[in-house]
Amino acid sequence: MDTQNSQSYIPVKAPLMAGISFALGLLFDYFFYGKIPGIGFPIYVCLLLIGLFVISKYSERQINKQALWLLVPLIFFSSMVFVRSSALLTFLNVVASLLLLLLVAEVSFAGLLKSLLVGDYVKIIFLPLEFIRPFFQTLPNIFKFREVSTGPKVSSQVVKGIILAIPVILIFLALFSSADLIFQKYLSDLIHIAIEPQTVFRSIHVFCATSALIGAYSYALGKKENSTIASTTSDKLHTVGHIETSILLGAVNVLFFAFILVQLTYLFGGEGNITSQGFTYAEYARKGFFELIAVAIISFLLLLTTEKYTAKKDTEHTFIFKILSMALIVQVILIMVSAFKRLFLYEEAYGFTTLRLYSHAFIIFLAIIFILLLYKIYKDKRENAFAFRAFVSIVVFLTVMNILNPDVFIARRNIERFATTGNLDIYYLSSLSDDAVPETVKILNISNKDLRKSFARDLYWRTQYDSYFLSQWQSFNISRMNADNILKSKMTDLEQYKDYQQQNVNSIVPNK
Fold first, then answer.
1. Do 511 and 428 meet the contact criterion of CB atoms below 8 Å apart?
2. Where are the domains of the chain?
3. CA triple 72-77-83, angle to 5 deg
4. What is the CA radius of gyration of the chain?
5. Taking the C-alpha atoms of 311, 314, 317 and 320 in order, what is their torsion angle to the nearest 10 degrees?
6. For residues 82 and 72, what is the distance between their CA atoms, to the nearest angstrom?
7. Rounded distance, CA 510 to CA 508, Å?
8. I need a labelling partner for 89 at 20 to 30 A (CA). Which of 95, 257, 264, 294 fits?
9. What pLDDT sits at residue 11?
């Protein structure tokens, strides 16, 4: 869109944009201040999208159809904040929703989603910094009302001045009242309104949210109709020769091969080979898991970089590069299998936790990304196609984790493990989210009296803490509601153990 068109719609949309942003700023405070995420989050996301559609309609801008497809995962992930209560899963759902909102702002009116390169997806994280300039560019246009043919021009200027002055004066009044108690008393006596420090903070809260939304909407609508985000056929200014790349990848392959030989001898060779070296199976499994994950991530970055900047022959990689890349990817996947098995052995010794489950899932996800990279090297050379497939893989990964319901899975596996080992970390299980309560409540029926009573005590005090959030409709959540109903039905049994002191501490083996 050119400058002339821009000037034609800014006076129309800017006041409307400011009004919608201010209303959403107030709702942001109402939905989230002092509250944990619940049903309010998907409602607010929908309101943000409605604001975008309203502004685009009155600005006579058409939203890109590819951007509309992003609404499917966006609505799903934001809705799962209402369904699941796991802290980590909620965090991932919120982050995914926010990043998808930024992606919507990037591609709604310009560019194509499938034209994004890997670097463009990374830049999305820093996109809010791009909202600052559009905010200040839009701010003067908010008060560019249409001239009325009757009446002097000075009256219009007076109205604009008053509108500009009111929010500034209110902010300063709030700050001065918070800073000086006597000034606050005079002001309260004058207008009979008690201004508390919380009011100041919440006013700033609303102001920041409103400003951010004005900048975001301005950024999205300010992009040109036919602009593209990135060029899929950009020329490489710097390339690396075949010899240098071959030496680099060849040396890494040799090192990885030597490491895999050790893994075949010890980790996959049986417990006897490990204990003969002075280690227990659990100790050996625990050591090195995160180091191996780091190796896999660094290997991916190495391959991605060399694949991008290695000189090609007629757009094709050389045969030696393809062979070395394939060998490295196969060996990295074997190393990830080693990490997967280490984690499995450790879980057999100490049970399941949130971190261990997500680590397992991440290994599988990383293996899929490596396979996509191998496909890019051999078949489809386009970086934007690889980036889009990786983006879809991330969406699918988080969708599967939501469907899996990690806390329920963890609780179920640990309780099943108790039947064979007699060990159960009730302290960890009681710390799981309300998602797990339908499973963890089964502990109240186990034979171990100390474990049963200690867990009942923890559940009782948990209900006292959760009652505050259940009273706020913005934080309403399906898992919290189900857990509350289950615990209420057992409240008589729980209350008698609220002061229980555990006697047999040796019956519990904590998660390491």
1. yes
2. 3-222, 242-381, 407-507
3. 125
4. 29
5. -90
6. 16
7. 6
8. 294
9. 42
* CB within 8 Å of 486: residues ≥ 6 apart: 437, 438, 441
Maximum mean pLDDT: which of 208-217, 297-306, 339-348, 498-507: 208-217
| In 422-512, alpha helices (H) | 426-431, 437-440, 449-470, 478-489, 491-495
Q: Which residue in 470, 398, 412 sits closest to 38, CA to CA?
A: 470
d(CA 207, CA 212): 9
Read off the tokens for 404. Answer: 């899996």
Instruction: Using alpha carbons, select from 290, 377, 291 the residue that is nearest to residue 330.
Output: 377
Tell me the CA distances in angstroms from 231 to 115, 384, 510, one per residue in order.
7, 9, 54
Please work out, in degrees rounded to the nearest 5, the angle formed at the alpha carbon of residue 181 by the alpha carbons of 176 and 183: 55
Of the candidates 222, 217, 164, 167, the residue with the CA atom closest to the CA atom of residue 20: 217
Kindly report the length of the chain: 512
Q: Which of 21, 115, 132 is nearest to 67 (CA)?
A: 115
pLDDT at 12 over 80: no
> Whole-angstrom Cα distance, residue 397 to residue 225?
33
Q: Which residues lie below 8 Å from residue 431, measured CB to CB, with a gap of 6+?
A: none
pLDDT in tens, 67-91: 888 999 999 999 999 999 888 999 9
Phi first, then psi, for residue 355 (nearest 5°) are -60, -40
Angle between helices 354-378 and 319-350 (to 10 degrees): 170
Specify whether the CB–CB gap between 27 and 50 falls below 8 A. Answer: no
CB contact at 8 A, 197 and 178? yes
pLDDT value of residue 405: 92
Neighbours of 430 (CB within 10 A): 19
- Give 385: exposed, middle or buried? Use CB within 10 Å, 0-12, 13-18, 19+: middle
Distance CA 17, CA 24 (A): 10
CB-based burial label for 26 (10 Å; 0-12, 13-18, 19+): middle
* Alpha helical stretches, state H, 33-107: 40-58, 65-69, 71-83, 87-107
Q: Which residues, listed in sequence order, are joined to residue 313 by a DSSP beta bridge?
A: 316
Given a contact cutoff of 8 angstroms between Cβ atoms, the answer to whether 346 and 289 are in contact is yes
Question: What span, in angstroms and rounded, lies between the C-alpha atoms of 162 and 342?
Answer: 68
Tokens of 293: 């994950």
φ/ψ (deg, to 5) at 310: -75, 135
HSE, side-chain direction, 13 A CA sphere, residue 66: 13
Mean pLDDT of the region 40-50: 94
Exposure pattern of 299-314 as b/e (b: 16+ CB <10 Å)?
bbeebbebbeebeeee
Residue 485, classed as helix, strand or coil, is helix
Query: Quick one: tokens of 229?
Result: 């985000």
Q: Across the strands, what pairs with 310? A: 240
